[in-house]
Amino acid sequence: MSDGGLPEPAPQGPRQHSNRRLTRSSKAADAGRNPRQPLDAAKRRKGDIAPEVDIGPLGNYIAFHLRLAQELALRAFTKRLGKADFRPGLFALLMVIKLNPGISQSALGRAIGRDKSTISPLIRELQAKSLIARRPSSGDQRSVMLSLTKAGQSELNALLRHVEAHDRRLDDIVGDDKARLIALLRKIADAFA
Question: Cβ distance 145 to 102 under 8 Å?
Answer without folding.
Answer: yes
